[in-house]
Amino acid sequence: MPIVPELVITGFALIVIILDLIVRKKEIISLVGIIGATLALFFTLRIYGSIGSQTILNGMFILDGYSSFFKLIFYVNLILTISISFKYMAVEKASYGEYYALLLFSTAGMMMIASASDLIMLYLGLELMSLSTYILVGFTRNNPKSNEAAIKYFLLGGFSSAFLLYGASLIYGLTGTTEIGAIAAFIENKGFAGNQMLLLAVIFFAVAFGFKIAAVPFHMWAPDAYEGAPTSITAFMSVGPKAAGFAALGRVFMIAFSSVKIEWTAILIPLSVLSMCIGNIVAISQTNIKRMLAYSSIAHAGYALLGVIAGTNGGLLSMMNYMFIYAFMNMGAFAIIIMLRSEGFRGEELSDYEGLARSHPLASALMLVFMFSLTGIPPTAGFIAKFYVFMEVIKAGYLPLVIIAVILSVISAFFYLRVVMYMYMKEPKMGVVLNIHPPIGIAVAVAALIVIIFGIFPSYLLDFVSLAIAG
């Protein structure tokens, strides 16, 4: 049954809510969340790359290799987030059962987005994901920054949803359908490629998806939300909602709007270039590492957009490969930040990492791996991710875009390697104690291994990603 993983995640979210009334130890509830995510992962892996495509709910929901691949990213994101939250939320004095239920509900929304073959299903998935994430951003209720971040995210997210709905209404008025495949067929058969209403709808969809992936100029919520949210939620939202946005962007633009590729490419190119420029340049001046990674996330959205701009199956695969690798290297970096969090010490300022290599050499070495990968330095997986995106963009004839991206990647080395410099070349701070426990240790180790292994042996990952199109 195509919808089994969604039912598993939603069912476990409800179980978590019930258990919260019965069980006092929140660690047990978090384990239940991990079990639910692992079960959904198992069901998805069983059919990945082997079924073609199946639709249910009158064609509104599709299960294919493309959606299954993004669901794997969502499961990884969920499992790693719960793992790094075990002790962290207790330190933040916000260890409540509904925290894990909201993570599961948000993931269910992402899964609906990936499998949406109808604009109505897409909207429902976006709202389920977004509403859960708004609450999670403001989950530390006693923190004014968290409350402010949640309000900003909620208000701008509401505008984003309005743009999506208005774009969908224009498409429905033009074609008489909200089914993505039928929209593509109607536009092609009726010769509506130059229709002004269609182009306006494409712009509205670009705005809506641009907000979800935090692309410039729709990124203004990201720095405040990333800094103000609990660090575990910053990690969660930097990967999951961004990947969901790219899943929707790829399906809608590559299928529904395939007849107007020239027009939407002209829209996405400035978004990509601006995201890479502003993300990398503004990150240089940041002293808060969460805020720095927020601007880094904006830049990475620009790099991943290049794969969509290429407009080919190869370009789409390179974007998917990029998001998979980004999930591990970004989650790993945030996990190290959480390790530094303790009573009275936040570990969020660059100065907090001074001399960390002397007091905690292993954690520093792992942070170095993640910073190298985010920069795109070989032999890490981050280099492979950028390399294959750049190659596909060159094949599509956009060499100037690659030149810009390479120059900005070099600029990004300044702020990523500055973290390494603080750890290895500064005098150590007194009293920095790492908050390490088995779940976060396993999460960091797995993330680092993936980043290193797929950096050295990229063919295994590329073959795995290719099954998404084959299936």
User: Termini, distance in Å?
Assistant: 16 Å
The geometry reads as globular
Q: What portion of the residues fall into strands of 2 or more residues?
A: under 5%
User: Topology as H/E string?
Assistant: HHEEHHHHHHHHHHHHHHHHHH
What is the number of independent domains? Answer: 1
> What is the percent of helical residues?
over 70%
The spatial strand order of the largest sheet comes to: 1-2
Summarize the biggest pleated sheet. 2 strands, antiparallel
Supply Rg.
Answer: 21 Å
SS class: mainly alpha
Q: Which segments are poorly predicted (pLDDT under 50) over 5 or more consecutive residues?
A: none
Kindly state the number of beta strands.
2
Q: If you average the pLDDT, what whole number results?
A: 89
Q: Note the total helix count.
A: 20
How would you describe this structure to a colleague?
This protein has one domain (4-470). The longest helix has 32 residues, at 144-175. 77% of the residues lie in helices and 1% in strands. Helix 14 packs antiparallel against helix 16. The model has no long low-confidence stretch (mean pLDDT 89). It has a two-stranded antiparallel sheet. It is globular and about 70 Å long. By secondary structure, it is mainly α. It contains 20 helices and two strands.
What would a concise description of this structure say?
This protein is mainly alpha-helical and about 475 residues long. The chain has 20 helices and 2 strands.
